[in-house]
Amino acid sequence: MELRRLAAALALAALAAGCGAGPEARDLDAGAPGPALTRVALGSCAKQDDPQPIWDRIIAWRPELFLFLGDTVYADTDDEAEMLAAYAALSAQPGWQRMRTTCPIVATWDDHEYGENDADGTFPFKETAERLFLDFFEVPPDDPRRGRPGVYEAWTFGPPGRAVQVILLDLRFFRSPFGRRARTAAEEEAGIGPWGASDDPAATMLGDAQWRWLEDRLREPADVRIIGSSVQVIASEHGWESWGHLPTERRRLFDLIGATGADGVVLVSGDTHWGAISRTDEGPYPLWELTASALNQSWPQAVNMPNPRRLDGPYPDENFGTIEVDWDAATVRLGLIDLEGREVFARTIALEQLRAKEKQR
Fold this sequence. Notes:
CATH topology: Purple Acid Phosphatase, chain A, domain 2
Shape: globular
Helix content: 10-25%
Strand content: 15-25%
CATH superfamily: Alkaline phosphatase D (PhoD)
Radius of gyration: 19 Å
Strand order of the largest sheet: 4-5-8-9-11-10-12
């Protein structure tokens, strides 16, 4: 989505919600590319009926944009009234109300607002769930998401030379079922999940239309690209949902980044109820992934989760993620902040490293 449409959509959303832009809100000028984006916060997994004090920590960090990476609410229902009640409970959260006035928010979904835990593309309630999700975020009638299946979308912020592209994928609407694996008693005790690789050669993560759309977006000019996936991309050993259970599709993603010449990619994800930074050398250049989850939940068993490509974490308590772009130093910094506002860990990456070797100076 071009910046002009995003500005209009955000203005409509603020008007519909009865809230205006706060003093730290980003000035999205519909007639110009706007200033360079430098501070992005992100998070996932917010139980709507429990306290959500972390929103004030996010606001204090002064983000220019917030990425909601799924599990906006925990509805787990195919009943429209129950889904609406879950969204109403989130709307009533004082912290969320303040967050709505702080900066633009863009979102994708995961399983719990889709309607069922770990649900895939076979879930029959998905069309209704999509409509309710788009309604909650006040997506206007002329937005592309209103006219096609799936909640995936992309936005570009900033002028040429300092452009940040944000791509949020839909990992539910089209996804094929994962395989299941037999767990040992020790694995179950440790909290290792039941999912494994699918043996279906036609299995898909994104569906044909979303794959074509993603290729087109990756061919667009940008200097930093944030690809948001509701489930983890790099890790799969923990047995919970991830791209690793459809390994051909994960390989396709990494190959597409290279084939389109898309420099500057960093991956962000949620879902897990732990925070982490991982890195893989399977792409055209090192691919880094920041996982931020959960906004108002803790899961002590997260410390048992295996991931040989993890550099930091797992952090099992409430958290949100941060991305800072220093355009003068040509770096991007990935971090995780806890409920007290302390930075748990961070990694700084030179933008020069986020390009194929033949393009490096």
